[in-house]
């Protein structure tokens, strides 16, 4: 491209993040180049500056400056997906209806791509079309090393409905984690504002003061389900807000980091190396209004490394959360 262009957001692209929209239409555009164009204000949406995480709406106009890449592709970028990829991603499906898919995302699989991430859920979505004419859409995300329930919308309207439910906090998300020590009291709430610190690509989320200009309100409810002496405990976590790395930072901030969290906790193996040094954080359940009516409740079995740990510590992996409804 050698001149400024204005590109309208199509119905199929509604709800897509601005950075993913660029990766889809301009697959040869480098991540660093895109970030530079956003920071300098050369990319605009409806005439205004925009951030990478902006969710686009149908009919919005995106100002695309001259790019040293090929012209945009029409619609979705072609994705090289193999039969093995299709078998793999379809094997992750734990719920399927006319509007929604739910995956049990394994730890280590990123939801979206990056400069050093070649395999991710977003790149495998063509394998989840089944008989539909379009690929499903991501409506939220999990950290790469966090496992569990990941929802996908099968059409634009479902994406909008699920997005609104998540944004409006009509969804209840339950996470299970293994943490160091035993939180006291056994049930409570952590309310500590968070802010990102550091350069793009190496940012860390930190607890900050209420008056900090970058501070974002962050609230997590928790309940101790079982403990192994005073050294380790199994906790349920309910994020009231949805900040980046919120659960990991909050638990570390109150002195009970999640086991296997080398970024915010300790990278040292625990229990003499019998417990795998992997992040023990799992999106166990989600309860959310279903776009087709009623409510959708999905539960994801624990990943292999957490099942191994639960067996080692004598925890019951199929425990019901009904007794903790009042915490939520």
Please characterize this protein's 3D structure.
This protein is of the alpha+beta class and 328 residues long. 17% of the residues lie in helices and 26% in strands. The protein has helices at residues 18-25, 31-39, 83-90, 156-167, 246-253, 304-313, and strands at residues 5-8, 44-45, 48-49, 61-64, 93-96, 100-105, 137-138, 147-153, 172-180, 187-191, 194-197, 204-207, 219-228, 232-239, 281-289, 295-299. The relative contact order is 0.13.
Outline the secondary-structure elements.
Layout: E1 5-8, H1 18-25, H2 31-39, E2 44-45, E3 48-49, E4 61-64, H3 83-90, E5 93-96, E6 100-105, E7 137-138, E8 147-153, H4 156-167, E9 172-180, E10 187-191, E11 194-197, E12 204-207, E13 219-228, E14 232-239, H5 246-253, E15 281-289, E16 295-299, H6 304-313
Parallel strand pairs: 8-15
Antiparallel strand pairs: 1-4, 2-3, 2-4, 5-6, 6-8, 7-8, 9-14, 9-15, 10-13, 11-12, 13-14, 15-16
Under the CATH scheme, the architecture of the largest domain is 2-Layer Sandwich
The SSE order reads EHHEEEHEEEEHEEEEEEHEEH
- Rg is 21 Å
Distance between the ends: 51 Å
Q: What's the short story on this structure?
A:
With 328 residues, the protein is of the alpha+beta class.
Salient structural properties:
328 residues; alpha+beta; Structural Genomics Hypothetical 15.5 Kd Protein In mrcA-pckA Intergenic Region, Chain A; Pseudouridine synthase; 3 domains; ten-stranded mixed beta sheet; four-stranded antiparallel beta sheet; 16 strands; globular
